[in-house]
Amino acid sequence: MADDAVESLAGLAAAAALGASQGAITEDDSLAVKVRAWFTEAWNHSLWVRYRREAEEDMGFYVGGEGAWSKDGSTEDLERIKGQGRAVVSINHVQAMVDILTGFERQNRFDPKVRAQGEEDEEDARLMTWLLLFVRAQAEAAETESEAFEDGVISGASAVDVRVDWTEDPLNGTITLELLTPGVDVIWDPSWTQKDLSDARYVLKFKTVFVKDLIAQYPDHAEAIRGALNAAEAPAKGREKLSEFNATDAYGSVRGHAQEAALARLFYDATEDQALVVEAWYRDYEDVWIVANKASGQIHEAESGEAARAVAASDKDNLTAIRRQKKIVKMGVVLPAAYLVVEEDDTPYDNDTQAYPIIAYVAKRKRDEMYGMVRNLKDPQRVENKRESQMLDLLARFANMRPVAEENSLVNPHALDSPHDPSTLWIKPGHQPPGWYTPSALGDLIKILGVVADRNQTFIRSSSGVNIDLLGLREKGDPSGIAIARTQAQGQVIATVFFDNFRAFKKRINERLARRIQQVFTAEQVFRLTNEIGEAVVVQVNPTEARGKTRDEFARLQAGQKGTDQRRVFRSLQEFLKYDVVISDAPATPTMRMMQLLGILEVLRTLPGLAPLMMDKIVALLDVPDKGEILQRVRAMMGMAAGQPAAGPMSSGGGQVEAGGNGQPIGLAAPGALAPTAAVPAA
Q1: What 3-state DSSP class applies to 225?
Q2: In the chain, which end has fewer C-beta atoms inside a 10 angstrom radius, N or C?
Q3: Measured in whole angstroms, how far is the alpha carbon of residue 447 from the centre of its chain?
Q4: How far is C-alpha 92 from the chain's CA centre?
Q5: Which SS3 state, helix, strand or coil, does residue 236 take?
Q6: Under a CB-based contact definition with an 8 Å cutoff, are residues 35 and 260 in contact?
Q7: In 3-state terms, the chain is what percent helix, strand and coil (to 5)?
Q8: Per-block average pLDDT, block size 10, for the chain (683 residues)?
Q9: What are residue 283's DSSP bridge partners?
């Protein structure tokens, strides 16, 4: 056995050496072994094993049909009932429960807002907000985020890759968002704890591709790829293929496990000529040397350890050299089947070297379980489907029960062969007419089954938190609008965690998008953007005349040119994110703006004296034609200079009343979104 292992490893080494000798692919056995071991670890970990099984089943219950009969990945109950020729019905209450939450999210979307903490950065923050909204629209970010939220609510997790695509524009690239499905095309370190995956050792994005397509993507590496895969499939002593063998190594892979054989087939399918390609993002560290002044508290970064020690030696009483480790993210593309590294480099996002580009949304996680709303709705839905099917089966069976007739009592005995035959039944004199057998307890049994089905509907609503008011239904009576709104708000509380985690997920996406903007838009460009009140604004970024100038120097230059051009100028995108900014939220959809407006109007009912101070805020939340012109007139009436932003939140770059920034769940202000409707009952 040891000889076999040595020979197998030798074959793999020969395959890798083939690629290296042709100068096509840099062979790095260390990274290849790590990526294969990482994938094996995550794929076989209990968290991901359960998640893959349950997530697929969750989606089946959301879609409905036969998928709503699955139990632990098996449809044995359904097949047995169908095999007996019994009635089968699939009722889908789960979809409505999920769609309530996803509908809230879509109706109550919030746009990102870049907010500066220093007054000197407010104008840049405002322009960056507009540019971020422009890029989000180009990348269809809102739609992608909504799909990620829906997947998370259904299955428990989703992910988005915030990337730059250089295939269409090799020079500048295009900022895009790619929706990923955990367990299907992305997987990460199962021992992670931080929601932004910052403590995950690795994040692996993978897909199965035809080898021909892989070679087309890497034409210079064709011989190396094909040679490595052929070597991986070569028989060892005529008995065993390398794709069915995993040698023992420092990362714990062993020979003989059934799951290892399944993984080997996943890595390379010789029958279909398909190979798994893994795009690995992983943590690495580099040393950073600093010199600290104990007297003043100042610190300075040194070029090397030697330089830091030399500076510290010049003043031993006050200066000290300290070594720190800085986390950096690297990436590589690996063919696990052949232990072959196709690409290896630092992250291509050179201004964002410490964060993974893949953002995960986990609806809920408790220990080794990731789950969404559907997970706890499946049992009552299964029971309801079984009971409804059983009830219909009983009704169909006994509705067509065969009649019982006395022997020789009918003139035509075959008249009873068809229960749908309406012809007259002739009975011979002296005999009783045919009788139909009906079990005496059939009615009670059907009533019990109906009650059980109704109980399971109640269980589904109580487990999800989606009550009848959220579904738009009504109990007996005519409750007031306030009572309905309060009941709706209570029903939303149970779903708050989904929206709270989603808000953090959106914040991380916007932070990554801001970094991609900074990286992609490096040259002088002019954009036609839309401001917060829907007006088109021309913005010039990275002007040539600003290069090498400080903020004050460029401001003086602009002052000298004032009045010659109406465009707004963003001096340097590359420097902006060095300032202290945060990503907050402002209402985006008409529904959310209306909820904000109703809240303000309710305040003005109680305190009408505030109305003159709030008119510009009210107009900013209206969805009316020519809103910009109306807003200017209102501001002029309020004593402001025409065209100047109002003080407070509007001048900070949003032009809208702040909302959703203090941890309140989007869409659940949405809890708040519904509560204001109750607070404004005119009738």
Answers
A1: helix
A2: C
A3: 43
A4: 24
A5: strand
A6: no
A7: 50, 20, 35
A8: 37 41 47 93 94 93 87 84 82 85 85 79 87 94 96 96 89 92 96 93 95 86 79 50 42 50 84 92 91 86 88 88 90 90 89 94 92 87 79 69 76 76 79 70 68 66 57 54 55 78 93 92 90 82 83 74 69 73 64 72 80 77 72 71 43 36 36 34 34
A9: 329
